[in-house]
Write a structure and sequence with these properties.
Elements: E1 5-8, H1 14-23, E2 28-31, H2 39-43, E3 47-48, H3 52-56, E4 61-64, H4 69-77, E5 91-94, H5 100-112, E6 116-119, E7 122-123, H6 126-131, E8 134-139, H7 142-153, E9 156-163, H8 167-196, H9 200-209, H10 215-226, H11 235-251, H12 257-271, H13 283-287
Parallel strand pairs: 1-2, 1-4, 2-3, 4-5, 5-6, 8-9
Antiparallel strand pairs: 7-8
Length: 290
C-alpha cells in the first residue's frame, strides 16, 4: 500500500491498532508521550517520532487515539503539534472518544491546512483492538472515508459511515452512556446478589441467559466476580465519557438522569483509588458499603 500512516497515542487501544497496521506492511510512524510504550512497535518496524509534528510530516493519514479533548488538543495544536506539519490532502482521523464541540473545532483547523477530518471513534476495547476487530463509527465526507478505508479495514471488522463530521463522536457518546449505566447497575446488582445469600454464579447464569443479558454484562460480571481489574477500559475514562455525554445530551435538551447517578458511582470508585483500573472495579466501593 502507498499510504504512510502516523498514529498518535499508544495506550490500551492505539498500541493494538498500530500493531495491526504493521502486520499489514503499512509504513507507520508512532508517537507517544511515554516513549517506552513504543519499543515493541519499533522492534517490529515502526518509526518512532519524538514529537507529533515529526510523526505527521511524512504521513498521508494521521490517526489520533487519546484519552480526552485535552490530550487530543495537545497533540494536534500544542508545541510541536501534528497540525504544524500537515500537508494539503492529508486525512486526519480522530479516533479518541472526544466531545462533538472539539471535533467541530478540529475540523475547522484541519481545513485551514487543506486537510480533511474524519471523526472515527471505535467500539470495542483492548482485545478487539489487538485482534483487529474494532468497529469504526465515522463522521465526515464520503470521499475522505473512501480514501482511508484500506487502512481502517486492517484494524476493524466493520466501518459505519453515520453522516457529517461529528456524527461518529455523537454516536460513541450514546454508546458509552448506555454501557456506563449498565456497568453501574450491574455493580449494584451483583453486590446485592452477594449479600442476599443467593449463589452468585447461579444468579449470573440466569441473568446472562435472560432479558438483562448482553455481551457487556457477561464480560464485566466475570471480571467483577474474579476481582480482575486488568485494564480493558479505564474506569476514569468511562467517567469522562459520562460527563461528555451529559453535556452533549443537554445540548439536545435531554437530561441524562441515569448518567448522573452512574457517574456518581464511578467518581466514588475514583476517589477510592480505582481510576486507573478497569471500569469493572466500580463495584468495590459498593461491596465495601462506602
Amino acid at each position: 500500500m502507498s499510504e504512510s500512516v502516523a498514529i498518535l497515542g499508544l495506550g490500551t487501544m492505539g498500541s493494538g491498532m498500530a500493531a495491526n497496521l504493521l502486520k499489514a506492511g503499512i509504513p507507520l510512524a508512532v508517537y507517544n508521550r511515554t516513549p517506552a510504550k513504543a519499543q515493541a512497535l519499533v522492534s517490529t518496524g515502526a518509526r518512532f517520532a519524538a514529537t507529533p509534528a515529526e510523526a505527521a510530516k511524512s504521513a498521508s493519514i494521521i490517526i489520533c487515539m487519546l484519552a480526552d479533548d485535552t490530550a487530543s488538543r495537545a497533540v494536534w495544536t500544542g508545541k510541536d503539534g501534528a497540525l504544524s506539519m500537515v500537508r494539503p490532502g492529508t486525512v486526519l482521523i480522530e479516533s479518541s472518544t472526544a466531545s462533538p464541540a472539539w471535533i467541530a473545532e478540529l475540523a475547522g483547523l484541519a481545513a485551514q491546512h487543506g486537510a480533511e477530518l474524519l471523526d472515527a471513534p471505535v467500539t470495542g476495547s483492548r482485545v478487539q483492538a489487538a485482534s483487529g476487530q474494532l468497529t469504526f463509527l465515522v463522521g465526515g465526507s464520503e470521499a475522505a472515508l473512501q480514501a482511508v478505508i484500506p487502512v481502517l479495514k486492517r484494524m476493524s471488522k466493520e466501518i459505519v459511515h453515520l453522516g457529517p463530521t461529528g456524527s461518529g463522536a455523537k454516536m460513541k457518546l450514546i454508546n458509552n452512556f448506555l454501557c456506563g449505566v449498565q456497568v453501574a447497575s450491574l455493580a449494584e446488582g451483583l453486590a446485592w446478589i452477594e449479600r442476599s445469600g443467593l449463589d452468585p454464579r447461579q444468579a449470573l447464569s440466569i441473568l446472562s441467559a435472560g432479558a438483562p443479558a448482553s455481551p457487556l454484562l457477561v464480560a464485566i460480571s466475570e471480571r467483577m466476580m474474579n476481582h480482575n481489574y486488568a485494564v480493558n477500559f479505564l474506569l476514569k475514562l468511562m467517567a469522562k465519557d459520562m460527563r461528555y455525554a451529559e453535556t452533549e445530551a443537554a445540548n439536545c435538551d435531554v437530561k441524562l438522569t441515569t448518567a448522573e447517578i452512574s457517574l456518581a458511582l464511578f467518581q466514588r470508585a475514583i476517589a477510592d483509588g480505582y481510576g486507573d483500573q478497569d471500569m469493572a472495579s466500580v463495584i468495590e466501593p459498593i461491596r465495601a458499603n462506602k
